[in-house]
Specification:
Helix content is 39%, strand content 21%. It is globular. The chain is built from 13 helices and 17 strands. A five-stranded mixed beta sheet has the order 7-6-5-8-12. It has 410 residues and is α/β, with parallel strands linked by helices. The longest helix is centred in the C-terminal third of the chain and has 25 residues.
Length: 410
């Protein structure tokens, strides 16, 4: 796959003027994303930048193909010359998204508004089909990444008019954004996997890497219900349980991106044994593997797909419904603990029952408590959460430094 756009040139220590330029470009493009179609004069008012600066940035974005003028001009209060608003041009560019979960990899194309244009799921060749083993031996890292790159190339080949700005990669476990490495993902058996290098060599495109909870915080603040929140906590409850926290538009990563590792937080009254040797760790208690194992013991489903439990509950199975509601309530109690520590304005929970059932959402909020229940929201992307997680890693980079999308802009 040839590169459609050259990798951005970055400096380890940008000058103050360069930083200001990036910030100004970012706030202008974010204003177009949030308010478009929008007049340049309105952007100037919203951002506090001068009209001349806004006009200059909009001209640059138009040259790059990121925005375009709206076809219908608008009059200002019905008098004077009509304003020609600008809007994102979501017809020319996409980003690739790769999300590696325990049973499968999701490969997708997203437009500049974070909408999924195309998607494909690739099940790992072998692995943990019964949920009893911790590691998916079929998820050989280089093979998984090679298949993902090939699938991404196939998706792009079906839409030759689209140009790919880069690739975002997300996964659970310990993912180091700066080095582009999955440091450790015990459920996959991955250790020190150089994802950025492998995918970059295979695709010829810029590759950006992050943990999926942090990726989803960025997706929520750019495209979802958490847009405008001053602080956001994202809790991801899947086979992996982890969290991310953002304040003032910045996601906390910590040294070597280790922030958000909550898998081994103790759950009061927990009974599930954990691979770490303790009992009652958060991930052991709440993971989808635990949910499916309990459902198998109850004779509700076979296998390790949590959507089968959701389907059984939808078909009227009371035990399946009870398992989902109990799990959601336990997630709520975990959220309450995190609220006490972090006190975010908004909490977004990605959990299969909460995404698909109102009784689970109610149980989640009950577990949180009435005083903070209204601040707890389900994911804004119930039907595409993994695809959006991968693509949002690249889109976050674009919206933070949009002029670096093309070498001519540097």
């Amino acid at each position: 796959m040839p590169p459609s756009v050259a990798p951005p040139v970055s400096s380890p220590s940008p000058s103050p003027s360069t930083s200001r330029r990036r910030t100004s470009a970012s706030v202008v493009l974010r204003s177009v994303l949030e308010h478009g179609p929008v007049a340049r004069s309105t952007i100037a008012r919203l951002t506090g930048l001068s009209p001349a600066s806004v006009t200059d940035y909009c001209s640059r974005f138009t040259e790059l193909g990121l925005i375009r003028e709206s076809e219908l001009p608008r009059r200002s209060q019905g008098v004077g010359r009509p304003h020609v608003p600008v809007d994102l041009d979501a017809t020319r560019f996409v980003v690739g998204g790769v999300h590696v979960a325990v049973p499968y990899t999701t490969v997708a194309l997203l437009d500049l508004r974070g909408r999924v244009v195309a998607v494909r799921e690739l099940r790992h060749d072998r692995g943990d089909r019964d949920g009893r083993n911790a590691r998916d031996d079929g998820a050989d890292a280089h093979a998984v990444l090679a298949r993902a790159a090939d699938a991404l190339a196939a998706l792009l080949a079906r839409s030759p008019r689209l140009r790919c700005l880069g690739v975002g990669f997300a996964a659970g476990g310990w993912v180091d954004r700066d080095s582009g490495i999955v440091v450790e993902h015990p459920l996959l058996g991955w250790h020190e996997v150089p994802v950025r290098d492998v995918l970059g060599a295979r695709t010829g495109l810029p590759v950006h890497v992050d943990g999926h909870a942090r990726a989803l915080v960025n997706a929520e603040r750019l495209f979802g219900r958490a847009r405008g929140s001053r602080s956001v906590l994202q809790l991801f409850v899947g086979n992996v349980v982890d969290a991310a926290f953002a304040t003032n538009d910045e996601v906390h990563h910590g040294p070597r991106s280790q922030a958000g590792a909550i898998a081994h937080l103790p759950v009061p009254g927990g009974t599930e044994p954990c691979a770490c040797g303790r009992t009652g760790c958060l991930q052991a208690e709440l993971s989808e593997r635990t949910l499916c194992r309990r459902a198998r013991r109850a004779g509700i489903v076979e296998g390790v797909n949590p959507m089968h439990v959701v389907a059984a509950a939808a078909a009227g199975d009371p035990v399946a419904a009870r398992l989902l509601v109990e799990r959601a309530g336990a997630v709520g109690r975990a959220v309450r603990l995190l609220l006490d520590v972090l006190n975010p304005e908004t909490v977004v929970v990605t959990e299969v029952g909460v995404l698909h059932r109102e009784d689970c959402l109610a149980a989640l909020r009950e577990g949180v408590g009435d005083d903070r229940a209204a601040s707890v929201l389900p994911s804004s992307f119930p039907d595409s959460v993994l695809a959006v997680a991968g693509g949002s890693v690249a889109l976050d980079v674009l919206y933070r430094d949009p002029l670096a999308a093309s070498p001519e802009a540097i």
